[in-house]
Sequence to fold (799 residues):
Amino acid sequence: LCRGGLAERLCRLQNRERSAISFWRHQCISDDKIPSDKSGVLIVKILEIFEECTIQVAICQQLEQSPVTLSPEDAVINAEEPILKVLFTRETAAHLRSRPQDVIYIYPPWQKLLLQNSDVPVIMHTYFSQKVLISEYSEAREKTYGLTKMLIRKNIISLAQTFRLDDLDDKLHQESSDNQVPCAPQTHNKGDSKRHPLALSVVNDSLLEMVESQGAVGWREVQVRVVIQRVYCLPAREGCRSHTQGNKPLCATPVTNSDPPHVRLCLLVQDAYGMFSEVQLQSLSSTDDIEQYCRRWEGKSCCLAGMKILQRTTRGRALGLFSLIDSLWPPVVPVKVPGQSQDSERMTTNLPPPSFCYILTVQSGEIHVEVDEEEQISNLYQPPAVHGLKEILRINGCNERCSFWAQVLYRRLQTKHSVPIDQREVLLFVTDSTLQNVVPGIPKVVAVSVIASCVLSMEITEALSAGSRHVFFKDALWGNGRIICVERTVLLLQKPLLCSAAGADLSELTGPVRLDELDSTTQANSICALRGTVVGVNESTAFSWPTCNRCGNGKLELCPQDRESLYCNQCSEVVTTPVLKMQLEVFLSCPSRSQSTIKVKVWHEISVVVSALFVLLTMLLFLQTYEVQSVLGKEVGLLNCYVHSVTSHPDCVVLEEIVLL
Amino acid sequence: STLPAVAEELLREIKKAFQDTSQVPDDLLLGLKFIFGPSAVPALDLVDQRSVTRLRSPSGRILYQVLGSSGKLYTCYSSCHFCTCPAFGFSVLQKNESLLCKHILAVYLSQALGACQELAVSEEQLTNILLAEEEEEG
Fold:
């Protein structure tokens, strides 16, 4: 038995009671007369007896005074006397051996219970009962009856009648005995209606209180009002798991989602006390909605209910989450201080930054979040602080969240084959007006890494592959001289409506973009522009191949029907005017970096009008020989390149010509 | 019949007293003993150990599972009094000696004291649990 538990307490109480009962019975037998103390004694006359599950139920009449004092003639059933239902345990009943017309004294402590639908009170705890023998006649009768067994009617209790523990007008609980199966309430995430399907319960303004009240009676009806500071997507690590507590798995099979969406919509919310919580909502089927959710929800208030605590995390364990929280600290309006009266002098913004945060998730199938979309932006909301890239590059700290609006010039995917495609990093080269203005010492273009756990919407991915676009980077991370898009960073195609822009420039670049020229400060994995003279050719790298003019497929095949033509199996058509692609590695001499060997892989394309194979092959051979001879000494004009590597011994820079978006 | 109404009222009083005072008074505990006899202490023990789980499916169907002292998991229905434990079959169904078994009583007490563990399951899972009982008996 659990120490301090209810079972242990009842055990103690019942042991005490048992001793009291046996002591009392002993006393009755030895005294052999009715105890003189009559206070609290219930005197009843049994009218009818029946049995229900070993409990003897006696319908009785309560007598005002002891029938001993009355003569037998006076002991007439008075219809006015109140009726009681007296319950006896099996053991007490066996001891009493009562029959109808018997009079029983029930000594305290007995208990009276009033039922809801009945006028007849029920008497329980009748251990201290004694039959009263009125006269010698009764005594004799008693002895006779003792030999014969009385038949008592047994009531069979229906199993269909369950107990309803709630008040009759409480509609929340669903254990009704008439087998209704109501549908679970719909989730209200779109916030279209202001219905509150939960019974009217007090709306709290403290997340901590809600968290601490979990498990207590009625906690699921508690609603908390919070402000949505940020909306973002997190990659879902695994399918939903069954809820296990301690070491007792209570479900045989874990829940698995049949169709696996890979991202979950999350909110970073803040309550009136300044406390933050990350709320993980349902999985998103399409990441395109994220821009919609950000626009509609950020800055608005919402009510949370029926949350489940997933985790309580601390600064040391969730650096990413806390870097975002730090960017929202201190709060822009004074927040309440717990435990004190909330007059405005006590409210403060001078508080230490949070050191812990609860991660909440929703109970499936229940109402959880209701966003007041029509309402105004809350005062507590801190929109992202947008800065120019020049300013961001000058930030001193590490792991600082920053937001900026920039043009993406070039995108490079990580090509390490050992890493699965969906976990590869993407490198974006961006610039804005603050960088394009010529300032020595500041690069014109900055590389932004997007790691795999930063969720990019399909819209963004398509936009970036189609052409140069302006993108809003919200809550990217700056540290160690690099900008990284991590978990909780959101890339959006539209400018933010609200931003605390201390001199932020949201203008778009109109003129041509300039890259830094190749020089002694150029580093690997960057982009630059160069000019120089061809001083050598790496002949072994000269390579030409035909590509499809429609889709760019570089793996054309011979047409099955006409072996003189080329066929593209991605377009499923014959290629009549293929595009010849040529690549060649050339060595350049660049005045801007004259000491180094510059090796550039250059590309060239020409469109071939005639596709007859014979002609094509001749052309390829011609081009390859032509290339080597005529290229030497040629001036190569401003070429945009991606820097593969920069080595100092030997002093060599390996680049690849690129086309900007 | 009287006893079910009495038992229900007793459980309601326990729930009310607990909601008001976060405690169960002694007289109500003794009332449990009076009505339910030998099931009372074991049922309270199951509640102390948080052995009752309420399973809820999206359509609103409810089932209870109680982790018995032997480590076996018993299923209690919510729409009628039924438990898959052998004591229920014997004492309640066969001999009509008790109103409930200790597991069903533990379910009610857990409801009254807010001590149910909650578990959301799929429709399929709920069905499997119910069907599993059928197969065992079949």
